[in-house]
Design a protein that fits this description.
about 325 residues, mainly alpha, two-stranded antiparallel ribbon, 18 helices, about 5% strand
Amino acid sequence: MFKNKLKIIILALILLAIISRFLWLDKTAFFVSDQGRDMMVLHNIVINKSLTLIGPATSFAGNYGNIYFGPYYYYFLLPFYLLNNQPYFITSIFPLLFILGLILFFKIKELKSYEKIIISLLLISSSFSLYYTRFIWNLNLAFLLSFILFSIFLIYRKKITVNGVLMLVFGIASGAIFQMHYAMFFLYICLPIFFWKSWKNLLLYASGFIVSFFPFVLFDIRHSHVLSRNIYSLVVGMHPQIKTANFTFLQIFEKVFNYLLVPSINLYPLIKSLFMMGLYLFTIYFYIRQKKILNHFIALIFIVFLISFSIFKRDFDYYLACFYIWFYIGAG
């Protein structure tokens, strides 16, 4: 009886996700310069029959121009573009990926049924989630595919970690999705915690991750090492044209509250900040005390996310979009 009720609840949640992600999608999908650029790149790949070796430009710049994301964003979208090159068709891929991620999430055995229900409710009902899962963008694809990859890894972790080929493929997939948006750094730097006791798995993961950068290497060789020289100039501070947001530590927690917890509530900013800080730190403390490696992983990504944002101080709603799924998993 309990299993039947659980199945009904899960089906109802998936139906809610489908309705909320596709309702009026053709009227509300966000489509401006970035989306137009991406469709033009796909068009040029098809017309010129030549894959690009770099992806969209980031807002980081060195002496020789912008730093670039990897090309895998375009590689992923290309088969769908070949099926149908209409923007609304490509747009529909993004809510479909969210729904697929949700279905896979329900199959994770390391989480209890009520935990998965609470987390999925947060993911589906969040206005922040609703906005970022309904339009074409490399950042959206990065966190959606990361959610799918993370769920697949947890479902098949025992098989992946005992198979060298699968570990290598997992490393390549991690590196490719990371290159879709570098704000996913907090996730992929923490994933090795699942196999930190195995040097072989750690090496295979790192090797696959490095192999995924081959298109960059090929581009660099073909263009007089402009990418490596540009990255070097950025690192040594020769051309520090980096857009940064001027957030204080308390404002970070206020924005997390506003975006992910209770949007549009009329409270003093300090109250929001202190409440969110308390919840955030308690979440870390709670998971550190647990014995399961998944719990330690959640605590670690909460810590790394906060540190990495404090260092880079990117536009916060974009950066938080990459983190929100894992925030709800931890808080849920």
